[in-house]
Every structure is written in structure tokens, then in C-alpha cells.
Amino acid sequence: MKLNLRPINKSIAEEILKWKYDPPYDFYNNRLSDESLKELLENNYYTVFNEGELFGFFCYGKSAQVPIGHQYSVYRDDQVDIGLGLAPIQTGRGNGEAFLEFIFHHAIKKFGNKPLRLTVANFNKRAIHLYEKMGFEKTKELSNGHTLFFVMVKNVDCL
């Protein structure tokens, strides 16, 4: 596997927004809309390719946060929020660890030794298992009334 970054552009953003996941991961399906395109193109989103194919994407900051988290005061400024998405065809194939390590190294170059934080839906057992294996610990729970989320944090000195 040879992962590399590419700048996001409109055609890549449109491809990402058309990704469809099987239940229960269809929670992460998006709709192609002007608002969704604007989100991907005007914020801190990065695309990851493997041997010429779109493999996944990730983002930092507010785009990686679940809006309800602000009511729970879980998003402190001394941590780097990471959001990510793996192409549906790549899920469940053992690619998550390499993808996360790639993101970790990019985050350390960009932000130094700040702890990394992500928010994940509690039903996403595969992701939670991977995050725990990669050194993340659950620090908070929050709910938007429909979905329970875990906020997980990793100190970068655990790499």
C-alpha cells in the first residue's frame, strides 16, 4: 500500500459525496448538494489515494466535530479534532490501521504534539475497536437524541 495526499477538487468531492455504505454504516452516507460540496472544498479536507485510486479523506478542526458536542463542552482547543472517511470498497478489509497511521503522521507534521481527538458513533464497533487498538481512549459520551457518540483522545507520544 502506498498512500499519498492529493488536493481536493470538485470532481473528487463529488465522488466522495456519492459514496454509499451498507447498513448500519449508511449513517455516514452523504447527499451531493451545493452545501456539501462547499463544506468539502472550503474547509480543511484532504484526500488520500492509493496507487491512483481514491482511498479516503480526512479533515481537521470544526469540520471533524459533531455539532452537539459544543453543548457538552467536549471540544477544547488544546486537542486536534480529526474526521475521516474510508472509501466503502476499502472498509472491513484491514486497511484502517495504515490509513490512521498516515493521518497521524500528517497531523503531527501540521500540529506538533497536540493530542488527537475524534468523535465516533457508538454503533461503529469496527472503528471503535481500531481506534482503541491505535491508542485512543474514550473520554466523553454525548447524544443528539438519536445517536450516541464517543469522544476519543490519543496522545501523540503513544505513536
What do the pLDDT scores average to?
93
Helix coverage percent: 25-40%
Q: Largest beta sheet, briefly?
A: 7 strands, mixed
Strand order of the largest sheet: 1-2-3-4-5-7-6
Which oligomeric state applies?
single chain
Q: β content, as a range? A: 25-35%
Query: What sort of overall outline do the alpha carbons produce when their principal axes are compared?
Result: globular
- Tally of helical segments: 4
Spans of at least 5 consecutive residues whose pLDDT stays below 50 are none
Overall SS class: alpha+beta
Topology as a string of helices (H) and strands (E): EHHEEEHEHEE
* Beta strands, count: 7
Radius of gyration: 15 Å
Termini Cα gap: 20 Å
Question: What is the topological layout?
Answer:
Blueprint: E1 3-6, H1 10-17, H2 34-42, E2 45-50, E3 53-60, E4 80-86, H3 96-111, E5 116-121, H4 125-133, E6 137-143, E7 148-154
Parallel strand pairs: 4-5
Antiparallel strand pairs: 1-2, 2-3, 3-4, 5-7, 6-7
Give a verbal description of the structure.
This protein has four helices and seven strands; from the N terminus they run E-H-H-E-E-E-H-E-H-E-E. By secondary structure, it is of the alpha+beta class. Strands 1-2-3-4-5-7-6 form a seven-stranded mixed sheet, with helices on both faces. A hairpin with a 2-residue loop joins strand 2 (45-50) and strand 3 (53-60). The two termini are 20 Å apart. The mean pLDDT is 93.
List keywords for this structure.
159 residues, alpha+beta, 7-stranded mixed β-sheet, 26% helix, globular
